[in-house]
Amino acid sequence: MSSSVTIQAFTVVPLDIPLFEPFGISGGAQAVAANVLVTLGLSDGTRGYGEAAPLPPYNGETQAEALAVLRSAAAWLAGRTVTLDTWRGLAAEFRVRGGARCGSAQCAFEMALLDALTRHAGLPLGRFCGGAGTELETDMTVTTGSAAEAAAGARAIRARGIRMIKVKVGGKLGPAHDLARIAAIHDVAPDSPLILDGNAGVSRAAAAELVRGLRALGVVPALLEQWLAKDDLDGARALAAESGWLVAADETVTTADDARRVVAAQAAQVINIKLMKGGLAEAFDIAAVARGAGLDLMIGGNIESILAMTVSACFAAGQGGFRFADLDTPLFLAENPFDGGYQLDGGRISIAHITAGHGVVPKLGSSPGGEV
């Protein structure tokens, strides 16, 4: 059994990090990562850090909502006793007290709690998550934009030594626009596996047009990620059957119960786990459902700093068996207010060097969110 410690401090501040350029998905674009930094202090002086990364175009969550949920927890968390064996109980209480309405806030709390507890125990977070491995291969994203911008983005990705390219599709400009962008990417990076991510912004008719167009281009995607509306399980099943390509459920799956519905409907071959949807406890449960049904796994995220992305890397590498990884957003941020985190060599992510917790701390002298 792990030793018991008491929560003595819980602080929450805005974490606003500018991007080099707006990050666009089918539902809209964001020019600043409007996130939240959580610091949780234990009775022995250990601190743990967590990050909420709400993304309004993705699921409607906002920084203001995450701040409100997290700040409301400070009073009832003070003095609570917890161990690595009982953390799920405290996570469940947080969910009941407000985390259920804001998954990114739930995630930030659980990140900070587990970081503090594993630092206290001298245990790397990846080992706590299962210890299966210490490496992943990440893709990098070409966001929404013109065909020329897509080609330039693909060239830059390949110049970094990243092999797999993720392409945002869907939205108001329609399939012809997306096909032109995909063709431009394929021209400059013909050997790159392509993940085509619709963020639930592609209609059934547009999906059929995209499949026909991709076949005409001779492009065989590695993955179709959540093209259709999140509740269109029948459409997702038909898309996989008619295209013959792998289909991933992302927005469709926030909870383990959602994953069970996907399994029952045979609506996907891959489930994209994002810790920001509902935290680590739920992610463990989703992974178990997917594995039990023989589905492949993907790890992804919102617009997150190296802090949250490292926690996702620890989770996925520690669990093992993740076929796809999309942990690239620190590369889009114009500033990094943290020290530590995963190491990146081309597209290879390593967490082997992390000796306790997730290994990320605010830079000395920095004040993320404008507060010391």
Which terms would index this structure?
372 residues; alpha/beta; Enolase-like, domain 1; TIM Barrel; eight-stranded parallel beta sheet; 13 helices; 17 strands; globular
What does this structure look like?
The chain is of the alpha/beta class and 372 residues long. It has two domains: 5-122 and 365-370, Enolase-like, N-terminal domain (Enolase-like, domain 1), CATH 3.30.390; 127-362, TIM Barrel. Helices cover 38% and strands 24% of the residues. The protein has 13 helices and 17 strands. An eight-stranded parallel β-sheet has the order 6-7-8-9-10-11-12-13, with helices on one face. It has a four-stranded antiparallel β-sheet with strand order 3-2-1-4. A three-stranded antiparallel β-sheet has the order 5-16-15, covered by helices on one side. Helix 7 (147-159) links the parallel strand 6 and strand 7 (165-168). Helix 2 (63-71) crosses helix 5 and helix 7 packs parallel to helix 8 (174-188). It is globular.
